[in-house]
Amino acid sequence: MDLTLRVWRQKDGQSTGRFESYQVSGIIPDMSFLEMLDVTNERLIMEGKDPIAFDHDCREGICGMCSLVINGRAHGGFDGTTTCQLHMRKFNDGDTITIEPWRASAFPVIRDLVVDRTSFDRIIQAGGFISANTGGAPDGNAVPIPKPDADAAMDAAACIGCGACAASCPNGSAMLFVAAKVSHLAHLPQGMPERGQRVLDMVARMDEEGFGNCTNHAECEAMCPKDISISHIAKMNREFIRATVRGD
Amino acid sequence: MGRFAKILQSSIGAKVAMAVTGILLVLFIIGHLLGNLLMFAGPEATNAYAKGLKDLGALLWVARVGLLVVFLVHISSALRLWRMNKAARPQAYAVSESTMVTYAGRSIVMTGALVLAFAAYHLLHFTLFATNPEFAQLQDAQGRHDVYRMVILGFRNTAVSGVYLVSMILLGLHLSHGVTSLFQSLGINNPTYNPIFKRLGPWSGVLLALGFMSIPLAVLAGVLK
Ligand code: HEM
Ligand code: SF4
Ligand code: FES
Q: Ligand 3 within 6 A of A64 CB?
């Protein structure tokens, strides 16, 4: 496959970036999107040019490190697919592909397509944890959990923290991510001790980091590579109202 | 900062405030529409209803102040959320391919602001008579303010009717996203009822808009005279 890439290049957080066009040829349809970028970078290095910086780690859809808005959609916008799992066969020979970084004030660009997502880490630090006693490991089945609750918690726990929700939301809202974490722990007995304080603290941190607010378009749900449902946002809203009414 | 103020300042607190005041505003406009539809029952019903409202006296002022507060909370929360949302995405995407965003959803702040402008004009027109001072003099046989005549005369002006008709379409658009949205904002999300919530917005928008539009249209068509 021969492609034209329009890639956002930006030296660092202080510089103003711009799009650069690259012609790449000989792309194999079975390559992943990141392998296509690897090939592009090898050629750039051979030509003595600066390779394109992009984030990645596991390359199997579990770590949440890869990102990229591809032709206007986070992770390319294919159902349940991260950028690292996206095959080049989804594109056509001769296509022009526009590649941009996540755009949100809480995700500042570090270089090219790499953004700083530590705002998510700080939201987790604010409340996305449980208190566990030290000592012997408890028996796995000692605490009974109803099957529907366990399923709902597992669905929420599938979130890999990639940030595609905030990147694709027209309001730059990270509520799907925060909701996944709040809902995951609010469905489990292990999450109960911090239940009220957790949602209040995580939402406060989310606001401080400068994310926007949900206006219920559901664009995040459509773009989330882990298909996290916006029903978790409703759950987070219920948790927030509950904690507020109880005075947690 | 007080606890209550702090909650209203938070994103979800503001969303809940939007939803609760949104429900109150919808209840108000349903009541307002039912009152307006008395136009089709004739001058007697309309003028008696208008007098009944005026005769509420102090109670009317309680309702008016309450409505104003509800309006102000709705608008100030909307503006706060809107500003936060603008600040959250300082740089737009060069290519943006939304799959879920509807026209009504995208334009909700604009339709809200235009509905506010309309509400101001509407008060100047039919409540304060600032645009038509002669409306204050209209009296019916029983010496009551002739609201029926006022509405007929007001809507015979096609430009005025046009403003009302367009504004009601904007209100319908606002509600078509807003009413569906408020359930999710309040945490009401249930796979069994979600299809109903999804339809409730567009249907309430269309029905309320058509309801209000029926009056200027009937005047222009000569059905009401
Ligand atoms: C006057 C100026 C107004 C402005 C600036 C305004 C703005 C907004 C905004 C920005 C939203 C957020 C919607 C979202 O979550 O996506 C909203 C929601 C809503 N508005 Fe308004 N609005 C106004 C007037 C009204 C009026 C007159 C009514 C009622 C007839 C109304 C009813 C609603 C409802 C029911 C919602 C849904 C609340 C929710 O999202 O949970 N609004 N409005
Ligand atoms: S909710 Fe989905 S899109 Fe958002 S961070 Fe988690 S996995 Fe990524
Ligand atoms: S690189 Fe780990 S999810 Fe894509």
A: yes
Give pLDDT tens digits along chain A (248 positions): 999 999 999 999 999 999 999 999 999 999 999 999 999 999 999 999 999 999 999 999 999 999 999 999 999 999 999 999 999 999 999 999 999 999 999 999 999 999 999 999 999 999 999 988 888 888 878 889 999 999 999 999 999 999 999 999 999 999 999 999 999 999 999 999 999 999 999 999 999 999 999 999 999 999 999 999 999 999 999 999 999 999 88
Ligand 1 atom 7: residue of nearest CA? B112
Residues B78 and B15: their CA atoms lie apart, in Å, by: 8
Its CATH architecture, for the domain B2-89+104-220, is Up-down Bundle (1.20)
Interface confidence (ipTM) of the complex: 0.92
Helix (H) or strand (E) holding A171: none
Strands A18-24 and A3-9: antiparallel
To the nearest whole angstrom, how far is the Cα of B53 from the nearest Cα of chain A? Answer: 36
Q: Does the beta-carbon distance from A105 to B105 stay under 8 Å? A: no
Provide the token pair at A143. 């605490």
Q: At what angle do helices B43-54 and B147-156 cross, to 10 degrees?
A: 110
In DSSP notation, B54-111 reads HTTTHHHHHHHHHHHHHHHHHHHHHHHHHHHHHHH-SS--SS---SS--HHHHTHHHH
CB pair distance less than 8 Å for B105 and A216 = yes
The residue type of A85 is Q
Best probe of the B interface among A237, A238, A239, A242, by most B CBs < 10 A, is A237
Q: Is some CB atom of chain B closer than 8 A to the CB atom of A103?
A: yes
Q: What fold does the segment set A117-246 form as a domain?
A: Fumarate Reductase Iron-sulfur Protein; Chain B, domain 2 (1.10.1060)
Q: For chain A, what are the domain ranges?
A: 3-111, 117-246
Query: Which ligand ends up closest to the CA of A227?
Result: 2
* Domain ranges (residues) in chain B: 2-89+104-220
A174 within 8 A of A120, measured Cβ to Cβ: yes
Q: Which of B23, B25, B198 to mutate for ligand 1's pocket (most ligand atoms within 8 Å of CB)?
A: B25
Architecture of the structural domain at A3-111: Roll (3.10)
- CA of B196, closest CA in chain A: separation in Å? 15
A103, A217, A233 member nearest B93 (Cβ): A103
